[in-house]
Amino acid sequence: MFVKQLMAISGIFFVLFVIVHAYGNLKMFFGQEAYDRYAEWLKGDAFYPLLPEGGLIVIFRIAMILLAVLHIASAFYTWNVSRKARADRYTVKKNVTDAYAARTMRVSAVILLFLITFHILHFTTATIPAGFEASEMSPYMRMIGAFSNPALVVLYAVFVGTVALHIGHGTWSALQSMGWLRRNTQNVMVVISGIVAAIVFVMFMAPPIGIAVGMIS
After folding, report:
1. Strand intervals (E) in 134-212
2. What DSSP state is assigned to residue 133?
């Protein structure tokens, strides 16, 4: 139970991060100056002088790495315990909803590991070219260059859809692991989890679609 709670808590932090990240991306609709200023604030002046210049992004990245390791290790431990339990013929069979959610979480987690790696190499480290000259490599222009390519918009939709699916099941599972899910509130929480996932999908996909259809240029 303790390991499940660790996985739930780390997952909740990731959900909050994803929502804040999606909100920040919406600044693309306010133009290059607004978006680039936001990106520079995150990398430099955020909470300065309380933190050294660039301190927030360093602390944030270290925290995300530690949370990711904790989340993955907890998930692997939980999966291993469940696998051993299934070998016991007397183990009570999970209901259909739990079983489907568990399978979905495992599959989406594997897909996310690959797509997150691609996303970091593409937008954070700029290892993967984004379709424009190095002199134009501002955060705003990197977004424009990337999503001017329809294939990347489709790939991003798969990525965001997987994130949303993971969040949807993860939110419900986290509430259950923390003991906050009751029989009389289960259906309501499933609906709320779905709404959260849908909001994340719409927020993340708005800028790429805006770029693809010419609303953002």
Report:
1. none
2. -
CATH number, position 151: 1.20.1300.10
Distance from C-alpha of 121 to C-alpha of 129, rounded to nearest angstrom: 9
Render 91-113 in DSSP notation, one character per residue.
Answer: SPPPPHHHHHHHHHHHHHHHHHH
Q: Can you tell me the distance from the alpha carbon of 203 to that of 165, in angstroms, rounded to the nearest whole number?
A: 14
> What domain range includes position 154?
2-212
Query: Which tokens is 65 given?
Result: 């790495």
C-alpha distance across the termini of the chain, in Å: 50
Residue 217 lies in a domain: no
Of the candidates 196, 180, 165, which has an alpha carbon nearest to the alpha carbon of residue 8?
Answer: 180
**pLDDT tens readout for residues 80-124:** 777 776 655 544 445 545 555 566 677 777 788 888 888 788 777
d(CA 37, CA 215) in angstroms, rounded, equals: 20
User: Is this model's pTM higher than 0.90 or not?
Assistant: no
At what angle are helices 2-25 and 55-86 packed, to 10 degrees? 140
Q: How far apart are CA 28 and CA 147, in angstroms?
A: 12
| C-alpha count within 13 angstroms, C-beta hemisphere, residue 85 | 10
- What tens digit of pLDDT does each residue of 162-204 get? 888 888 877 777 777 666 667 777 778 788 888 989 999 999 9
d(CA 78, CA 94): 15
Q: How far apart are CA 203 and CA 217, in angstroms?
A: 18
